[in-house]
Amino acid sequence: MTMTAPVWILGGYQSDFARSISKEKLEISDLVKETTTGTLEAAGIGAEQVEVIHFANAMGEFYVKQGHLGSMVATVLPELSGIPAARHEAACASGGVAVMAAMADLESGRYDVALVVGAEIERNVPGKVGAGYLASASWVGHEGEGQEYMWPFTFSEIAQEYDRRFGLDDEHLRAIARQNIANAKANPKAQTRGWDTPPECFSDDDAANPRVVGRVRRYDCSQVTDGGAGVVLVSDRWLRDNRDAVHTPVARIAGWGHRSASLHLQHKLDASADSDFVFPHVRDTISDAFARAGISDVFELDGIETHDCFTVSQYLAIDHFGITAPGRSGEAVLSGDTARDGRIPVNPSGGLIGVGHPVGATGVRMLLDGYLQVTGQAGGYQVADARRFATLNFGGSTATVVCTIIES
User: What is the average pLDDT score of the chain?
Assistant: First the structure.
């Protein structure tokens, strides 16, 4: 299993995830314009060079009552009119799927320069209303009936499954939250960088860290927010022909994996009853990416940006990547192996918990952070001497999974 042709990242842009777009009296069109313009400038690419646009957005029809967002790019930047564009929705994996589609365009030879943008506005409605919108990414009417907070409930059930199969110490989940919030302090685009989070926030203190549902407490949850992220991807042919005109550091997407499974959590748990892994399809997605990149295991990476929509999401990523044996992820957290200066740093940016989670932008933001790491541009959260990073982006209860390997 190999890449059919290399795909390269020229650069990208992330908005400040601490902002509230609606409080600034702005609209999603303003966020799309900012993100697109910033992405092209960072990559050193003119609008006239873009050949195809892939736009990631999961919840536009709910939060801002706006669909057909693939064409929003040309709406706010008329110089991009006439360029083919498509909008991608795969819940929290919308960004990852948009990247997969752009890569397929480049690998096939159909196009040579792809603009990938993800954007979402989620801070414009009360939390309970937003929770109802986000529940649409489950199998509506078939799971989580009667639950006010569908996704905290679902990932509490995943924590319970880990506990049933292997045993699970909630202190390990609290330690993940503590580490990601601490990492985000060094990230100038992170939503939580200025938050005051005393130790009680990472404990079972019901006042400082109230229970949301089941085993999930407030700081086990990523923070929905407003934000955009974008990257410019180019084919190997384009880079060979234009290398002298490229003045930004470049990185290669060396491998990828993309798999899907049932929307219903219980279907996935039943299917994995005899497996070593709780989610074998997640492990297979990672293994696909490793095989295409020509690497044998996780310790050939210098770090990982993973999907920590909840602390147990990062917990499952740790063992599914192979950092520990199945069910023993907490050992890597408590030992410091996953710290920014550890053996295999996980979410040095702060992850979704620390950076924020504008759903449609998250998968693109992860790819951008991997690029920044391997090109030495991550600033205060830079992993020393990073040359190869992985990303893991998933939607729903891992119903859609995308993994990439990025190399300098």
Answer: 97
Instruction: Evaluate whether 361 touches 95 at the Cβ level (below 8 Å).
Output: yes
* Residue 7: both structure tokens together: 């795909």
d(CA 95, CA 28): 16
Give first-to-last CA distance, the chain, whole Å: 21
Say which amino acid occupies 309.
C
**H or E element, residue 58:** none
Q: Which is nearest to 223 in space by CA: 133, 310, 125, 348?
A: 310
What pLDDT sits at residue 5? Answer: 83
Residue 251 to residue 387: CA distance in whole angstroms: 9
CB atoms within 10 A of CB 158: 24
DSSP category for residue 231: E
Please name the amino acid found at residue 192. T
What predicted TM-score, i.e. pTM, was given to this entire model?
0.98
Rg (CA), the chain: 20
* 249: CB partners within 8 A, 6+ apart: 11, 375, 376, 377, 408
- Tell me how crowded residue 49 is: count the other CB atoms within 10 A of its CB: 17
pLDDT interval class at 246 (50, 70, 90): very high
Exposed/middle/buried for residue 267 (C-beta within 10 Å: 0-12, 13-18, 19+): middle
Q: How far is CA 384 from the centre of its chain?
A: 22
